[in-house]
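Give me structure tokens for this 314-residue protein.
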Amino acid sequence: MHDPILDIRGLTKVYPGGLKALDSVDLSIRRGEIFALLGPNGAGKTTLIGAVCGMVRISAGSIHAFGGDLANNWRTARQRIGLVPQELGFDMFDTVERQVGYSRGLFGRAPDRARIEEVLRSLSLWDKRDEEIRKLSGGMKRRVLIAKALAHDPELLFLDEPTAGVDVELRRDMWRQIDSLRDQGVTVILTTHYIEEAEEMADRVGVIDKGRLLLVDEKEAMMKRLGRTEAHFVLAAPVSSLPESLRAYPVTLAEDGAVLSYRGGDGTGKGKAEVAAVATALLQAGIAFTALDQKESSLEDIFVDLVERQGLAA
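Here you go.
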């Protein structure tokens, strides 16, 4: 197996006053993957990105990138890292092309107008190249942020809430852009509140809460391992208790006996089979139902469940 492009061990950040923003985080990022880091506000996502990008001084642990320790070769490594921050940071009176070209120069890269044109065209910004940034829409300003981050051709790109505040159409357009970056060999780490973003794009997903990394797994494996089936049977008439034949299944009565709820399975199809068995058992017991609502867990369900369980354990 190839060495990871980024390897974080025991990463801890304690702010003055005792707030532990990162708590012994271990994380390896594979070259060429799209990795989504999910977590609520204040979970530590932005602090982790800041630590890798040299904006946050860590309290303990190590960060290796491109095979070297960042503590020893930060400036060289930083030239190979791109960052799209949450906040819009521009000279608002500058033009799009000049700002993006300036960003390339900041990282020691020689001027290359053809490359800047390529980046701007890929983000549908070439027609806006002579516009002052202040005149652009919010979504276009966010595209300029991505262009600035790509101007020096980074191998590792951090996207911190890249589509926050943009409309659904623009968000999907950005997903396509990010996917094309992977095709070019760029490794992408994104944080997001839009869990469908991770479900759509990520190869692997990590869940962080209160500075602790709760879980890292292949997206499909996570959904298979932690996925659940939920089903709600609306009964034709309320019942006061369950027949013996249903007690082997994870079912409960709700709404004064008018709804039978099932929650079980393991993402392998077991849940669907058990829902069918519950339906058969209901009919055999003479209990009719007028409606059945069934769904499989989404990544969002898994995320919420993990964070809630973590909160209960704390």
